[in-house]
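Memo to structure team: turn this sequence into structure tokens by end of day. - J.P.
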Amino acid sequence: MAIIQRFTTQLPIWARSDHPLLRYELGRANRTSRRTRYLRIAGLAAVIVLLFWAGYAIATGFFQNAPGQNLTEIAMAIVFWPTLALQVIMQVAALTLTVNTVSEQKRRQTWDSLRATQDGAGLTLRARWVTVYYRLLPLLVVTVVIRVGLIIGILIDLTAFQGRYIDLLLNNVVPEVSPIVGALLLAFLMTASLLLPFTSVGFDSAIGLLVSVTVQQRVYSVMTQIIVVGIRLLILVTLMVGATQFVRGSFQVSDGAAWLLMGGFSALGDWGLSFLHLGFYSEVWATIPYAVFLGIGLLLFAMAQSALSEGILAFAIHRAERSG
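Reply from structure team:
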């Protein structure tokens, strides 16, 4: 509890749960009966259980085969598709929870008053942006716990062959790197995989707020939301199909394009999830020159995405304060 309190004190004042606007947003979201909240929790738990049951079914060829040859391979085979589904749900939810912010305020006839108040519009948009993290916290926790489990699996795998497993993984890698550097590059990947769910949710929330400020009529807002969600899903499917076909050898591209394809899939598609399986990640290392640096690329992408989210949020606030 003390750790959580220490962390929350490091947040900006408008992001703390005791801030009046944030408390209002959270209270409005929770303004339901206890029975309804219990039903929502039960429904969420049922969806998660169903997803992982489906993941096990897919991993075993619908209960016909073993899901893998070792513990880490079995874990990845079971959790990959359910986790990817949860991440898509979070992407869509982050946009949906923010895209109607301005239209809702206008419907309650409070938007003009907020804009007339100093920093009123800005604090309202920031409060809604932070609220998304609070409301998606259960799903974020699930995705992070899965990643932590896979990272523990990586650390266990690295102890194989008397601690020389990473030496074997780095054979035939271009460029040649020492085991110490290889371990450091893996650490960058692990860090990026833990950050990407948070930066991606923040980015989608910021996009939703920008749409909310730009397209304030509800009908057009819904249409824009459908278009944005469709584009995001199209990007995900395209990157996934391209990456899968490349790994299988059915899709040939140049080394640079292959690096960008696998990096783009990991950054925008599964948020670094598939690279948390050393067997798969080492194949990427051996196939694509300089793929050993993908972990650094993902970490830089996460940092850039966070900065871009803040920039989009600031631009949305600027538009909200000056638009009619």
